[in-house]
Design brief:
Blueprint (H helix, E strand, L loop, with lengths): L5 H6 L35 E9 L4 E9 L5 E7 L7 H12 L3 E5 L14 H7 L6 H17 L3 E11 L1 H12 L3 E7 L25 E7 L7 H13 L4 E6 L16 H17 L4
Parallel strand pairs: 3-4, 3-5, 5-6, 6-7, 7-8
Antiparallel strand pairs: 1-2, 2-4
Helix pairs in contact: 4-5
């Protein structure tokens, strides 16, 4: 174990504060079998894409970055993972943004707590990893990711956007309230209402007054985990606070309708949502 104690090895962090390990390959174990016929695979031809190491306040975490191979000053999009971490789907989303001319980067936000890609099922991920990740930690890591992008000399972080899916969709709302430099966000079926806890002291509905930039919410009308009533509640609060926003609800779409590797994928809603996302970024200073 390279001189690490058993506790340090299992936590993935060395005495020097450096994360042990890298991003996994392929799709997370607990989402197998993958619906292969729907999976979108974006080529790296013409792109600079691959794993990077991001220095945060306390440790170095892995991430995936993609951008056009030539040029500079690309508008920046932070891509926030689902509960499965930065697996193949999230990497491909980064490459899709790169193809559209963006510097896209997805930090592995569970690096300290464990590897969700190897967990056998979702309840295990939630219990052993997600429940131990605080919103405060995530906001700090996203700040570090923006700093990493800026230091690269390739990203224009004055044109800063953020997007995320499910767990990451909630983080889009939180980060828009946290960072005044966010120009635009696109939240894919992220929870906005919930009970406060030590790790999640506030939810998006509680932070409406602090929202920065313009946020687009893409939600499924058939999502059994996020009632349409909560979308309406959030929309009403944002309107009352005079915050720029837009919601698109796809009536027949379930949760995770953009996830092309899962049975929940809905091609029409996913394609329209992607077009809406790109248009939203360009219309609101990220492009």
């Amino acid at each position: 174990m390279d001189g690490l104690t058993d506790k340090e090895f299992k936590s993935g962090v060395s005495r020097r504060g450096v994360v042990v390990g890298s991003l996994g390959v392929g799709f997370a174990l607990s989402v197998q079998p993958v619906v292969a016929q729907n999976v979108i695979t974006t080529s790296t031809d013409g792109l600079e894409a691959g794993e990077v190491k991001i220095k945060t306040a306390d440790v170095e975490i892995p991430g995936y970055r993609a951008m056009p191979k030539t040029g500079t000053n690309f508008p920046t999009v932070i891509v926030v993972q689902e509960i499965w971490g930065v697996h193949e789907y999230i990497k491909d989303v980064c490459r899709r943004f790169a193809r559209a001319g963006y510097y896209a980067i997805a930090p592995e936000l569970y690096a300290r707590q464990g590897d969700p890609q190897k967990a056998p099922d979702v309840p295990t991920i939630v219990r052993d990893i997600v429940s131990k990740v605080s919103d405060k930690q995530v906001m700090s890591d996203l700040d570090a990711t923006v700093a990493f992008a800026k230091a690269s000399g390739k990203a224009d972080t004055a044109k800063l956007g953020i997007t995320g899916f499910c767990w990451g969709g909630r983080m889009v709302w939180l980060y828009a309230a946290h960072n005044p430099n966010v120009k635009a966000g696109v939240a894919w079926y992220g929870r906005m209402v919930g009970q406060a806890s030590e790790m999640n002291p506030k939810h998006p509905i509680d932070l409406v007054q602090q929202m920065n930039g313009a946020v687009l919410g893409l939600y499924g009308g058939a999502d059994t985990g996020i009632p349409v009533e909560t979308v309406q509640q959030m929309e009403k609060a944002l309107t009352a606070a005079n915050k720029k926003h837009k919601f698109v609800v796809y009536p027949e779409a379930p949760h995770a309708f953009h996830a092309d590797y899962r049975p929940s994928f809905r091609k029409e809603a996913a394609e329209d949502g992607w077009k809406q996302a790109l248009a939203w970024f360009k219309a609101n200073g990220v492009g």
